[in-house]
Amino acid sequence: MPFDLDPIETRILGCLIEKERLTPENYPLSLNALTNAANQSTNRDPVVVWEEKTIEQGIERLRAKGLATMIHLAGSRVAKYRHQLPDHFELTPAETGLLCTLLLRGPQTPGELRQRTERFHAFAGLDEVEKALSGMAAGTFPLVRLLPPRPGQKERRYLHLLSVAGAEPDLAAVASTPMESVTPIVPVPTRIETLEAEVASLRAELQALREELAAFRKQFE
Predict the structure, then answer these.
(1) Which has fewest Cβ within 10 Å: 2, 19, 91, 119?
(2) Is residue 46 part of a domain?
(3) Whose CA is closest to 15, among 52, 54, 59, 53?
(4) CA 32 from centroid of its chain's CA atoms
(5) In the chain, how many domains are there?
(6) Within 10 Å of residue 129's Cβ, how many Cβ atoms?
(7) Residue 2 reports pLDDT greater than 50
(8) pLDDT in tens, 6-30
(9) Predicted local distance difference test score (pLDDT) of residue 191
(10) Is 75 inside a domain boundary?
(11) Is 221 part of a structural domain of the chain?
(12) Among 213, 206, 212, 221, which residue's Cα sits nearest to residue 39?
């Protein structure tokens, strides 16, 4: 069941999963909210600045692959989007958190995943993380695989397999690429566009802080 997601589709899917789990009151997401989520500077690697049109085209590709859908809520004139991951996989909350973190931040070690997945699921230890990852790597359609160590490093990283051919995505290479035009000329942003991008980034950071605070409060409920 290969999906061959490109880097933009990968980021969008990760954002939809993240917001559903951490801020369900604001989910599904409008195109504007989805753009802010994709461009936020926290819990993302790399940090990108993509235009709304880029996100719109990416979500349409996800819809064509059956991984997202558009809905219209009663009383709202704005279309909203949600992911369709449960239509394809039966994942536990722990597995969903791991997959989401891999989608948003790329290959990571079990230790990094344990720390960064706390927002979704509190693992008791590295053994539990490894057990979940091993389960995700097995079956007829593996979701992750273990990469060989980098030169000079001992720790091995896990990679999700929803991207093109299971290859390690080079998100940095497309971090500032609009991908909505066939022309190779990328326009230089004006001062207004720059300010708008900065405002969008600040809003995304504020939203991320709210999510982290909500996750922290849940520990004491």
Answers:
(1) 2
(2) yes
(3) 59
(4) 16
(5) 1
(6) 23
(7) yes
(8) 999 999 999 999 999 999 999 999 9
(9) 55
(10) yes
(11) no
(12) 206
